[in-house]
Design goal:
Layout lengths: L4 E5 L5 H18 L9 H14 L3 E8 L2 E12 L7 E10 L8 H15 L4 E4 L6 H9 L14
Parallel strand pairs: 4-5
Antiparallel strand pairs: 1-2, 2-3, 3-4
């Protein structure tokens, strides 16, 4: 683990760095399935997305920094699961750590801090949204004691 790592709430000044990390994540997702092919305006869309999440009262955006450099991002939202109990769920929407900083405990630490932040916003459970074929994510979440509860199937029309 890096002794000089900082995990903190994202600021407006982080938008460009976090948009780059989100764009990397989306390009990685595109490797799992052609239906996850990134849009041509990926970086611009990522900037708008990050800005909207930072300003949303129901969202959590955390950045991991090493020596002032953004090396990881996690984005989550609290949503009402109207038809289910527990009602309020924190949903991890985006989670990316640069490859050279993986497998050193950073992801686990980021997830722990994100879950705490989502809990403070009212989440009674935590869910994660990621590509179905991402075996690395599946193993990570299993190690964190998550289990599958829903599936989404898709096809082009």
């Amino acid at each position: 683990m890096y002794p000089n790592i900082v995990i903190r709430a994202a600021l407006e000044s982080d938008v460009d760095a976090l948009a780059d990390l989100i764009a990397r994540l989306k390009r990685l997702n595109g490797e799992f399935d052609p239906l996850l092919k990134p849009a041509e305006n990926l970086l611009a869309a990522s900037k708008e997305y990050v800005k909207s999440k930072i300003s949303s009262p129901s969202s959590v955006v955390l950045v991991a920094e090493v020596d002032g450099r953004a090396v990881g991002v996690i984005v989550g939202d609290v949503e009402d699961r109207l038809f289910y109990e527990p009602r309020m769920a924190g949903i991890i929407r985006e989670f990316y750590v640069l490859p050279e900083f993986r497998r050193k405990g950073l992801g686990k630490r980021m997830m722990s801090e994100a879950m705490d932040a989502l809990r403070r916003k009212g989440a009674q459970m935590i869910m994660a949204d990621f590509p179905a074929l991402n075996e690395i994510a599946i193993e990570f979440y299993k190690k964190m004691n998550f289990r599958p509860i829903e599936s989404i199937y898709a096809k082009e029309v």
